[in-house]
Amino acid sequence: MAARSIIEPFRIKSVEPIRMTTPAERERFLVEAAYNPFLLRAQYVLIDLLTDSGTGAMSSEQWASIMRGDESYAGATSFYRFESVVQDIFGFRYVLPTHQGRAAERILFTTVCKPGDVVPNNTHFDTTRASVEYAGARAVDLPIPEGREPATIHPFKGNMDVGALEALVDEVGADRVPLVMITITNNSGGGQPVSMENVRQVSAVCRSHGIPLYIDACRFAENSWFIREREAGYQDRTPREIARELFSYADGCTMSAKKDGLVNIGGFLATNNEMVARAESRLLILTEGFPTYGGLAGRDLEAMATGLHDALEEDYLRYRIASTAYLGQRLTETGVPIVQPPGGHAIYIDAASMLAHIPARMFPGQALVAALYLEGGIRAVEIGTVMFGATNEQTGEETTAPMELVRLAIPRRVYTQSHIDYVCEVVADVYAKRADIPGLRMVWQAPPLRHFTARFETV
Ligand code: F0G
């Protein structure tokens, strides 16, 4: 059968206008935003690929669930529905709702980490790293070597380096490793999946040392789809069965439901450890809310419960992964260097390679982000030295990141194929002019998480 077009497995019931701007307007908005996309007003953005977090469109079933929200302070029906959905998919005993992923991370790390501890992860996301460091622990990234090579093709580039994990645990001692984390898919490493086999191996290392394994589950449904497509033995399993097996190797998870929960706000922390759950619950009451709402409205819990089901639908996942791959293929055909193979939720342009004339200390990723906005009103985000580097206060030298990437994150169920075709055209035009793109100088910053507020000028 001839390959047919990927079609969006939904039709559109409500629309939101997006606004065209002129090149002169964009120039002005970008200067006003000091070349930082986080400081741009969304109304001046045409296609917003800043993040796939909280930017998805809810289904009619989710909107129907919203009306069912029980807003009782304690013991709301919506909580019990949400809890049973999470227990069913993830298999963990204790479920604590939080307003988003980083609240779950903060509660987890402040409960289990003490100063001097070490937390390994395949790659920490920015907020995860910041939360670990805030708790006084050291965040160590242990991706497989292929995970740091943008052009290398590997089916599970998100995998953790199991040998490096064992060496680290031997070096620092298991008592200083309060938990190991695995991020699925590996966001900072290109949205790349982790294999079931890798999770099983990491889990075995953890269990042999008595260290709990937690999964950063943001994009668990997309990761489950990749396992089904790429790992032997999973072709006939449903994404739900794959997810259930994946989490069976772990002791708990943190979740930003703003990704594969298909909601605009929400998250949770889950664990099998009763002592940890109790300590976390106390902190939850102090900082987020009573444990049956955790800083959310009852309607948000309902939307999450339905969204977690939606995210595991096979038609949806097939379309989701195919449409991201479509963007990746078209950019590759144009010659644009991207992290290969395409990830689940985003395409990552290798800015170090595309803008080889701009050294890392002049932020090639940020420069490319600026060029994409100027050319076509597209908002992307840098994942490189702006996000993960640091300026030495004494010498002014920049510690640079291992990769200089620009992420085009695709909101879920929001843009159609013609929007994506437009993105391909704009990136191609920027690629043709790449030699003329200037580097940037950071003129103001406030660590930690400096990328959200840093200000730049062109060099
Ligand atoms: N972990 C990962 C892997 C993430 O990608 C994110 C958020 C978080 C944790 C934190 O979740 O935002 O709900 O507090 N990532 C978004 C992004 C912001 O753009 O990739 P949160």
Helix content: 40-55%
Bound molecules: ligand F0G
Distance between the termini: 53 Å
Derived structural class: alpha/beta
Beta-strand residue percentage? 5-15%
Radius of gyration from the alpha-carbon trace, in angstroms? 21 Å
Oligomer: single chain
Strand elements, count: 16
Give the biggest beta sheet. Answer: 5 strands, mixed
Shape: globular
Give the mean pLDDT: 97
Count of discrete alpha- or pi-helical segments spanning 4 or more residues: 16
- Uncertain runs are none
Order of strands side by side in the largest beta sheet? 2-8-7-6-5
Please supply descriptive tags for the structure shown above.
alpha/beta; 459 residues; five-stranded mixed sheet; 16 strands; binds ligand F0G; three-stranded antiparallel sheet; 40% helix
Task: Provide structural commentary.
The protein has 459 residues and is an alpha/beta fold. The chain has 16 helices and 16 strands. The strands form 6 sheets. It has a 5-stranded mixed sheet, with helices on both faces. Strands 9-14-11 form a 3-stranded antiparallel sheet. Strands 1-10 form a two-stranded parallel sheet. α2 packs antiparallel against α11 and α8 crosses α9. Bound molecules: ligand F0G. The site of ligand F0G has 15 residues, from α4 and α5.
